[in-house]
Amino acid sequence: MDKVVATAGEAVADVPEGASLAVGGFGLSGVPGVLIGALFERGVGGLWVVSNNCGAMETGLAVLLAAGRISRVTGSYIGGNKEFARQYLAGELELELIPQGTLAERLRAGGAGIPAFYTPAGVGTQVAEGGLPWRYDGAGGVAVASPAKEVREFEGTQYVLEHGIRTDFALVRAAKGDRHGNLVFNKSTRNFNPLAAMAGRVTIAEVEELVEPGEIDPDTVHLPGIFVQRVVALTPEQAGDKRIEQRTVSS
């Protein structure tokens, strides 16, 4: 089955107002910026985003955030995104902060059809006991707080119950992909991208290099095409547009 779509705009044309999105990337690494840009051009808002962070240096999800298109974020890192912090503290968006490993496993579990799982991460904290501010009221008070979660003991150790995540759509970026949707990620871009792709009911991948079926060694496939519904081939200019978040040099 040929899953290639001609343009990024066509690939995201059916993403509706209020849709939930799992988005790959970490900082500036592996972010599906072209698909996010196409979604921005569509003008849809009220989006629930599941991603490690919400964009950096005015790129990626930061574009949608600055335009007020995101209403809720499930993630593990605010970082240096001042607009993200401002909107959260002002009560303009809802934020569910969770441990990074738990986020990764919730995405993987959702994609694998596992409704929930137990983890020791967060036991004895507000992650398990509830009370984390999800939304502020704009005046310093908490409008919505996280609920308490089930905690059980297994072999003398306490574990908290976490639910798998499924989203309407997933947006990911891969170094290479074929027309069947099999994807290969390069180094650190293999961060949240495979997990986000698994969690989406409709997964859209932008690929830096599009190849024909059979050109990727099956042993090197990081994500099988069964998890991908649409593929967008980037132009050389789009594929080469990679910014550096923190430049490190040696003397």
From TrEMBL:
Keywords: Transferase. SMART domains: CoA_trans. One of its GO terms (molecular function) is CoA-transferase activity. The keyword Transferase applies. InterPro entries: 3-oxoacid_CoA-transf_A, CoA_trans_fam_I, NagB/RpiA_transferase-like. The keyword Transferase applies. It holds the Pfam family CoA_trans. NCBIfam families: pcaI_scoA_fam. This is Succinyl-CoA--3-ketoacid-CoA transferase. It comes from Streptomyces fuscichromogenes. The lineage of its organism: Bacteria, Bacillati, Actinomycetota, Actinomycetes, Kitasatosporales.
